[in-house]
Amino acid sequence: MAFQSRKYFDHQKLLKEVEALGFSRARAARALHCSGNANLEDAINWIIDHENDADIDEMPLIVANIEIESQPEIESLQPEIESPQPDNTTKEVEKKAQEIRDRVHQRKEEEKKGEKELERDREKERIRVGRELLEAKRISEENERKRYLATKKAEKQEEKRAREKVRRKIEADKVERRRQLGLPLENPTTVNSSNPTVQEKKNPLLVMTITKAEHMSECLRSLRRNYKGEDARVRRAFQTLLIYVGNVIKNPNEEKYRKIRLGNPLFQERVGSLKGGTEFLELCGFEKTEGADFLYLPSDKVDMAQLNSAASIISSALTNPFFGLLSV
């Protein structure tokens, strides 16, 4: 009984010592209980390790077996509790507790510093990714602008050819009407001498250099003339050609977009069976493989400028109502 009473009063003494370090009674009691009521140092170490626990300031609930001791035994122990004298051990514990607090504070500061550095690195990465996205967007918009300008240029040239054809037809009709009315025909020599500049511009195709783009345009015009009256079939062929060319422009490194099986029923129905369809793809750089089973565009022969020009010509053929009216 005396041993239990002394143990009880020892616990009370430890509790007061922990409270003297500035901790609440509930926190001090929980620390002593969870650390086994061993000593002041273990209790303080427990508080430091569990200072972020949600229930650290809740009084622990424990089952206590309390026995009432005789008054003399209590009185004999009372002086030890009421007037605890600080000893060297308590001072050392306080000093160590302060050192532990300092280390914990330093560790938290280092963690905060590490988090700040990590956040800076993340911000730098976000800025880098943002710049790359902006640059990719700028390049995409620039390519789109170039394709638009090329398309408009092709449309203007086609409209010019169409107007020239209409003008020549009007002149031919005028000559025919004069002939039917018995009026004298104009002297071609006089016309040539009076307006030599106009005569030179009358047929510019005779003096201009036929480029690959012209070959492509003429190939599509020929396709439209060969299938006159089948506008839906021709339009579907143009759309399919634009898909093939567009896929290579978007994915130049993907071999599956640079390889077309000639025996594919869908390809034969839309392009292969039309005179001029396969020829247009060959003008874009596609080559027939051995055995003529595939049309293949080698990676080292991918010409983006040529493919963009081809896409512009196809777009013009799809949108320009005058496309294919000029016959040569």
Q: How would you describe this structure to a colleague?
A:
It comes from Melia azedarach (Chinaberry tree). This is UBX domain-containing protein 1-like. There is one protein chain. This protein has helices spanning about 1-20, 25-35, 40-50, 70-80, 90-180, 190-195, 195-200, 210-225, 230-250, 265-270, 275-285, 305-320; strands at about 260, 285-290, 295. Mean pLDDT is about 80; it is low at about 80-85 and about 190-210. It is mainly alpha-helical and about 325 residues long. Helices cover about 70% and strands about 0% of the residues. α1 packs parallel to α4, α5 (about 90-180) packs across α12 and α9 packs antiparallel against α12. Strands 1-3-2 form a three-stranded antiparallel β-sheet, with no helix packed on it. β2 (about 285-290) and β3 (about 295) form a beta hairpin.
Question: Could you give the topology of this structure?
Answer:
Layout (H helix, E strand, L loop, with lengths): L1 H19 L4 H10 L5 H10 L21 H12 L5 H94 L6 H7 L1 H7 L9 H15 L4 H20 L8 E3 L3 H8 L4 H7 L3 E2 L5 E3 L7 H16 L9
Antiparallel strand pairs: 1-3, 2-3
